[in-house]
Amino acid sequence: xxxFLSEEQxxxxxxxxxxxxxxxxxxxxxxxxxxxxxxxxxNEMARADLFGVPIPEEYGGFGGGCLDIVLALExxxxxxxxxxxxxxxxxxxxxxxxxxxxxEQKRKYLPDVASGKKFAAFGLTEANAGSDASGIQxxxxxxxxxxVLNGTKQWITNGxxxxxxxxxxxxxxxxxxxxxxxxxxxxxxxxxxxxxxEKKMGIRASSxxxxxxxxxxxxKDRIIGRRGTGFITVMKTLDSSRPGIAALGVGxxxxxxxEAARYAKQRVQFGKPIMAFQAVQHMLADMAIGIEAxxxxxxxxxxxxxxxxxxxxKVSSMCKVFATDTAMKVTTDAVQVMGGYGYMCEYPVEKxxxxxxxxxxxxxxNQIQRNVVGQELNKEYARKK
Length: 385
Fold this sequence. Notes:
Blueprint: H1 7-24, H2 28-34, H3 39-47, H4 66-79, H5 81-100, H6 103-114, E1 120-123, E2 139-143, E3 146-157, E4 164-170, E5 180-186, E6 192-194, E7 208-219, E8 223-224, H7 230-266, E9 268-269, E10 272-273, H8 278-307, H9 313-343, H10 348-359, H11 366-384
Parallel strand pairs: 1-4
Antiparallel strand pairs: 2-3, 3-7, 4-5, 5-8, 6-7, 9-10
């Protein structure tokens, strides 16, 4: 379908598609097998200015909106969402600075991320805090002109590879959610370290580690926004980033359909390609219908967010749920279409199916997203009474 993209948006698509086809697809199996961070590919993206897409022009970026980053991530997801996740996590890491940072913080950190010179990461999840942010145990205590952080973050994407980290910590436990604040941590800060890389079912090209703070001292001007506003910044950050996760799902599903359809045209049984059998045609048709619906919702949500950034929670959650559930179904069906070959590691749909599962889990499980949509509907209908 023609979504009437601007010339600049089509350029983003073309650049991301070229990098995906020429750099990601030939390396994705090796990156997955070796659990290898795709630094060379990310450097290619940096040279193509993709890291600057969501960053305003005054800080060295492209000045793009939600739809622009969605278009890039869809193409990257078609090749490998492990690589796409490493790229997307850097944007996630700088969203708190974009949303609530001071002008000084923006000028200090955003240009290096826009150029790809430095990567970023976002630290919220802990052993007892994920969807329930009230379970955060990491603390930050002010000591003169410094903040002192103690605690551990878990399952942080780009951990050990990023140079800039935006971290949520409790500054006043008596205030509940209003007692959370956000901070900027830099690689090399005393008292800050990263754990070993986690071994994962999928997205193995991305790095996932613990972040460990033991009397980590940082300057007092590294707090993002006002003290106690961390939870608000977190919610705005995740609302901003979830369409990107949806886009990875759309791209992954498209890649799986492409592989399954190509195989179905070549695989001959009972004297004809299995694409000629109605049972296979219907599976592929349902896959294509789901992908196009997910793409339309994803693009529509992104356009809405660009036009109405104050009203993004419901549509952000909607597109994340639908697109990532679609990706899980499509990749599973792609393996089924390819039968025994689809189950073998030498064919990419096996990896795609493993990768797809995380999309329903990270940046807020799809069950939590349904809660968000339900709560927003409750508010809307209460106003209509």
